[in-house]
Amino acid sequence: MVCASSMKLGYNQPSMATLTPSTGRGTWRDLQALAHYQLTHIDRVGWRRFWKALFGLGMAFFLALYSTALHETNHPAKAAAVAFLSLLLAFVVALKIVPHLARRTALQRWMMKVEYEFTHEGLVYFLVITLIAGAALNTGNNLLFIILANLLAGILLSGILSAIVLSQLELDFSLPEHVFAERPMISRLTVENLKWVFPSFSLTLSARDSQQGKRREVALPAPRQILEAPVYVPYIPHRSSVTQHVELTFPRRGGYTQDGFRVSTKFPFGLLRKSHEVAARQEILVLPNVQPTAEFYEILPLIGGEIESYLKGRGHDLYAIRDYGESDSARHVDWKATAKAQQLKVREFTREDERRLVLVFDGALAARDPGTLAQFEKGVNFCACLAWHFHEIDAQMQFLAEGFGTPMAPAGEIIYPVLEKLALVEPNVDSTSALADLESRIASSARGFHIVITSRPRGSIPTRLWGSSYMVFMDSL
User: Fold this and answer.
1) What contacts 365, CB < 8 A, 6 or more positions away?
2) Which phi and psi angles does 191 have, rounded to 5°?
3) Where is average pLDDT lowest: 360-369, 413-422, 435-444?
4) Reported confidence tier of residue 374, pLDDT bands at 50, 70, 90
5) Separation of alpha carbons 5 and 169, rounded Å
6) Does the model's pTM come out above 0.90?
7) How many other CB atoms are there within 10 angstroms of residue 68's CB atom?
8) Angle at 356 (CA atoms; ends 352, 361), nearest 5 degrees
9) Structural domains in the chain?
């Protein structure tokens, strides 16, 4: 659950309660310690900006008085230029310095942090305000001052209403338990308005990008985020919630993260885009795509034929003794039972499960170039499709990979751990040690038919692995 609440910040300083009214050396040392602390913890940046703002506003006030004097001495052109310079200087102070000072005040403890961004309409609106302000200062017309006051009041009203719209919102972003790559899925984004009286209008919800400044400094790649496209919510009544169903498609397997949401609105006049960031880290693991491909349908019958050939006649446990049939082999005749019954009897053995399989993924690569990496991704997807196929036919399966292994169990019990491993698997360039590890794992695996997905050249596979395994080479996918 994500709650859109303001962040409370604070700092520690020596408590005044430690200063006693007695006139001893301890009190003097306490005063010295407090003075030293105050001097070493001065907000120099804040004070520097404060004096800059004070100087800028003083200069703007002086230029405004000078503009009035020029106007009274019949220099309208100079008066207009000086008045415009005064207004521009005050605007720069208000836009560049005042927000930094406001963030350092105690107001931030209870005020919600809102970022402002001019829209195209807002720029035109501000240009009109600038022209009317210059005309009002030059002419002294009361009507122009009234119009200017109404335009400025519109900006103030817009800020108040947008702050109300963005306040007391609660977000809930629900995703399915298992997410597969390249498959569209539906998620639910619920926005609840906790306000008792006021509704919320025209909200846009997008992913919060906390790495934007860091990427600009060190050229980091953009992280893979969960919510790529913004979601628009037109209206949320008070004390109620609205649920938007969002269709998401993840192009690749692997981990996706999202640090939070960015809630923005242009309500009520569309002059400014007000945004509020909600920090709430969320991570999901996107499993490989398990939709069968054309290569999968081509190779699956070959694997099935190899399994049938490998398992033929491999039953050992006696199940029953029955009468001889025309299709029975003579080597299964039980001569003792035949002599006793004076009729041909054959032994019937329990058939080993023909779907007892060991799936092995060999992640060794000769080099990390775009071609081999693309083949590696195809091998991962093929392995995921094969594991999902064995899950659908209720096979007994064991999965082996570098640093990971499952016991022989019904595929339905281990399918999701296998897919999670395949979602995070990375290629291994050290092929020599990987080959030795692969051979040792296959040798110690459970009894069954081995299916090995590998990117190694065909001539590098030892003969002992060919005898009991079916090799799927990634360059053939």
Assistant:
1) 372, 373, 376, 427, 428, 429, 431, 455
2) -115, 120
3) 435-444
4) confident
5) 8
6) no
7) 16
8) 155
9) 2-10+39-166 (no CATH), 169-287 (2.60.40.10), 294-313+353-476 (no CATH), 318-349 (no CATH)
